[in-house]
Structures are given as structure tokens and as C-alpha cells.
Amino acid sequence: MLMAHHHLPLSASIFTLGYVLAKFLKLSYQDAAPSSMIGASNHFEVYRHVYNSVLFLALLADLKVSQEHTH
């Protein structure tokens, strides 16, 4: 999946930021690691949905332009 490949550095950054903040708040590893993983996962899901929506809208716009040129 091409989209996931380009998004990996950002997900890793979000995990790192979440983990550092959790440790700053003095959370244990058992709490800090899973909460950081959930944050990175949620961010990836939002990114994936936005990416798919933009792609869908671009395809619809292209279809509309193609139909206008045929008439």
C-alpha cells in the first residue's frame, strides 16, 4: 500500500511524541507505550479516510470534466 509507506515516518513521529509526553507525565511503560500506539493508530485512520475522500472527490471531478467535454 503506497499510502501507508509514505505515512510511516509521520506515524512514528506521533508515537514518539505521545510516548515522550506520557513519560513526562510520569506514566509507566505499561501505560505510556499502549497509549502512544493508540494515538498513532487513530491518527493513521484519520489520514487514511481523508486520503480516500480526497481521491474519490478528485475522481468525481475528473469524471464530470470528461462528461462536459463529450457533450
- Please state the CA-atom Rg, rounded to the nearest Å: 19 Å
pLDDT under 50 segments (min length 5)?
none
Q: Provide the residue-averaged pLDDT.
A: 83
What distance separates the N and C termini? 37 Å
| Count of domains | 1
- The DSSP helix count reads 2
| Element string (H = helix, E = strand) | HH
**Which descriptor suits the 3D outline?**
rod-shaped
Give a written overview of the molecule:
With 71 residues, the protein is mostly helical. It has one domain. 92% of the residues lie in helices and 0% in strands. The chain is built from 2 helices and no strands. The chain has helices at 2-24, 29-70. Helix 1 packs antiparallel against helix 2 (29-70). The chain starts with a helix and ends with a helix. The mean pLDDT is 83.
Secondary structure: elements and pairs:
Blueprint: H1 2-24, H2 29-70
Helix pairs in contact: 1-2
What keywords describe this structure?
71 residues; mainly alpha; 2 helices; rod-shaped
Short description:
This protein is mainly alpha-helical and 71 residues long. It has 2 helices and no strands. It has helices at 2-24, 29-70.
